[in-house]
Amino acid sequence: MKIFLLYFIAFCFVFPIYSQEKASSIKSSTEKYTVSGYVKEGQTGEFLLGANVYIKELMKGTMSNQYGFFSITLEKGNYTLIASYLGYENFSANLELKKDLKQNISLFPNAILTKEVEIIGERDDKNTQDAKMGTVEMNIEKIKSIPAFMGEVDILKTIQLLPGVQSAGDGNSGFYVRGGGPDQNLILLDEAVVYNAAHLFGFFSIFNGDAVKNIELIKGGMPANYGGRLASVLDVTMNDGNSKQFKADGGIGLISSRLTVQGPIIKDTCSFMVSARRTYIDVLMKPFIPHIKNAKPFEGSGYYFYDINTKINYILSDKDRLFLSGYFGRDVFSYNNKKNGFNVSIPWGNATSSLRWNHLFSNKLFLNSTLVFSDYKFRFNAGQGDFVFSLFSGIRDYNAKIDFNFFPSILY
């Protein structure tokens, strides 16, 4: 009886110790850590959205968000992290994941010279199985390679070539998406609403190709944060500016000329981008109108448009970034008859600005807070002698919003 009692007491003491050690070993085997960071363009410092970041051993991963941020949560161990983006060299790094890691990635362009053409098709159910159904992303470099009317790269005319999108008319930048009207499309420029996205009475869009980085068209299944339209969402993102070196681009066309200047204010920390465009058809045609047969009714008339895109990108710290962007554009039609003193002026156009703050609360929680100002004005002024007539119409919006992106430990 005494021996049995001793065995019982020993079992009571040993079993809790064994259970505790077993639970501890299970816990340690399932420890998880997070690797996160930003994906940038190595030569300019631009954030790359939609870059593929995955684990080679698992062949699973994620994509960088609109601001280049990614986050992956894995169990403790050794892994190979690979980042890829179309037209760039792959990035590879060996990770020993025993704590949370910060891994910023820089990708550099890769020139591929080949005589063969490889055509790769997408699986039939991609559009229905993907988490972003009905979404088409277009790179501005691809758009620039498409032949343009009078040398002017036009984003709105390019998306009219996509399935489910139809032109509102010949020479018109308006578009119908799956039966919806042109006014049922939500058009955003750096998260600011654009109410009239056309110049020259619809022949050209207001988007200057030199100032645009990425275009995303959502034709169906719009996320809840894009409220207010029925047909589609066209989200246009402007360039952040080259944070490595100063650069200037420009072009002279038949209708207009453009100039874009970008560079670092503080190298690798703060950059700017300014892009301007103006038509000069009024200047070119004015001397010839009096000498053109049957052009007398047009004498004294003029038309021109211009627009300016600006953006400043400032990296406050590893966890904080500021973006300040703006757009201002105008179309001006005028008519002045000196004989009878009759004159007309019709200016209209958009002005937008957005201030965004990105903050990382943790390696899984990403915050984007935005202040947006959007203004559209249309004015009609006419006068003859002492009689003056003026008509004004416009829309002005102030908007503030906060978006949270949470990256769980699920890999796709």
Uncertain regions spanning at least 5 consecutive residues: 1-29
Number of strands: 25
| Multimerization state | single chain
Describe the largest sheet.
Answer: 8 strands, antiparallel
Helix content: 10-25%
Instruction: Report the radius of gyration as a whole number of Å.
Output: 29 Å
**Mean of all residue-level pLDDT scores:** 81
Counting DSSP H or I runs of 4 or more residues, the number of helices is 5
> Given the helix and strand composition, which structural class is it?
mainly beta
Q: Biggest sheet, strands in spatial order?
A: 18-19-20-21-22-23-24-25
Distance linking N and C termini = 62 Å
Strand content: over 45%
Q: Identify the overall geometry.
A: elongated
The topology string of helices and strands comes to: HEEEEEEEEHEHHEEEEEEEEEEEHEEEEE
What's the arrangement of secondary structure elements?
Elements: H1 2-29, E1 32-41, E2 52-55, E3 60-63, E4 69-75, E5 77-84, E6 91-97, E7 101-102, E8 105-107, H2 126-129, E9 135-139, H3 140-144, H4 155-159, E10 165-167, E11 175-177, E12 185-189, E13 192-193, E14 198-199, E15 204-205, E16 212-218, E17 232-238, E18 247-252, E19 256-266, E20 270-279, H5 281-285, E21 301-315, E22 320-337, E23 342-360, E24 365-384, E25 387-406
Parallel strand pairs: 1-7, 1-8, 12-17
Antiparallel strand pairs: 1-4, 2-3, 2-5, 5-6, 9-16, 10-11, 12-13, 14-15, 16-17, 18-19, 19-20, 20-21, 21-22, 22-23, 23-24, 24-25
